[in-house]
Design brief:
alpha/beta; Rossmann fold; 6-stranded parallel sheet; two-stranded antiparallel ribbon; 8 strands; binds thiamine diphosphate
Length: 309
């Protein structure tokens, strides 16, 4: 969680330098869901995600150097500098693909989970989705098919209540989000998405059930994004949500929550956490330096992979 938070805060701070020229969808405040889930996944398990994927990528152990280089459009980036922040991937770390068309990644993840089932390789796939993603038809086709074929996949929904500037209550009827997945006959959980330990606990249950061959599981993690939908700023003044609401969620900071828990359990926790911060800050600094010093892709690279030939 600290690595995700420090990474995102550094991106936010350095974004105004105008050197990172791709959009950034930060997930400050939403560190517990990917951290809890990825702690429960095995190293060989795989994730798929969407536009707000930095936290997912970092939590699954993706290379910081590759991701930051991608933000700077450098040849050393995870898609060689041509994809930008919404196409994070690091196959070695099991981060297979992220795409920004809302819902677009769902059938891709389901197809991949089906391939793993047929290979019998024991890989669990987890696909991240936002609450708004449930409004896309393809999501329901994906739920239906995954359930029918008992595929080894976790549908992991981070409910942060907003689709850009529109609240959930103005987009969907008042009913539990988990009902949508339960209707497709799969196990569902709804958890406090700012409680990393709870997220880890249900993610472990999901993995155990999937590894027994019981088919997909849907998890809703209720959380809140602190910064604007896209970009480094705070936007509580523009009218779609209030400063009071934001402050209430800020009090539920997932990093502070876990820190407090650890301080109660371990007298050396403060010292250990300090060391983690120092180590991670250095790691992030090195990764930024690497990105800044890396070359831009050659001109010929621009048209590579655009055509079948
Ligand atoms: C099919 C499609 N429609 C609209 C958009 C524009 N859009 C980008 S992000 C977004 C909101 C997504 O909300 P959610 O899935 O809840 O994720 P969050 O941004 O809250 O993390 C929208 C509508 C898009 N990228 N794709």
């Amino acid at each position: 969680m600290i690595r995700v938070r420090e990474f995102e805060e550094t991106v936010a701070t350095r974004y105004s330098e105008q050197e990172m020229r791709c959009p950034v969808h930060l997930s400050v405040g939403q560190e517990a869901p990917p951290s809890g889930l990825c702690e429960a996944l095995a190293e060989k398990d795989q994730i798929f995600s969407h536009h707000r994927s930095h936290g997912h990528y970092v939590a699954k152990g993706g290379s910081l150097k590759k991701l930051i280089s991608e933000f700077y459009g450098k040849a050393t980036g995870c898609t060689r500098g041509v994809g930008g922040s919404m196409h994070a991937m690091d196959v070695d770390a099991g981060i297979i693909a992220c795409t920004p068309i809302v819902g677009g990644i769902m059938p891709v993840a389901v197809g991949s989970a089906m391939a793993h089932k047929y290979d019998g390789n024991g890989i669990v796939t987890a696909v991240f989705l936002g609450d708004a993603t449930l409004e896309e038809g393809v999501v329901h086709e994906s739920f239906n098919f995954a359930s029918l074929k008992k595929l080894p996949i976790i549908f992991f929904c981070e409910n942060n209540f907003f689709s850009v500037y529109t609240h959930l209550r103005d987009r969907q009827p008042d009913r539990p989000l988990v009902d949508l997945a339960a209707a497709h006959k799969m196990d569902v959980y709804s958890v406090d998405g700012n409680d990393a330990v709870e997220v880890f606990r249900v993610s472990q249950l999901a993995c155990e059930s999937i590894r027994k061959g019981n088919g997909p599981v849907f998890i809703e993690a209720i959380t809140y994004r602190w910064r604007e939908h896209c970009g480094p700023n705070y936007d509580n003044d523009i009218g779609y949500r209030t400063e009071e609401e934001f402050q209430e969620w800020k009090k539920k900071c997932p990093v502070e929550k876990l820190t407090k828990q650890l301080l109660l359990e371990d007298k050396d926790a403060e010292e250990k956490i300090k060391k983690i911060h120092t180590k991670i800050r250095k790691e992030i600094e090195d990764a930024f330096q690497f990105a800044l010093e890396s070359p831009f892709p050659a001109k010929e690279e621009l048209f590579k992979n655009l055509y079948a030939n």
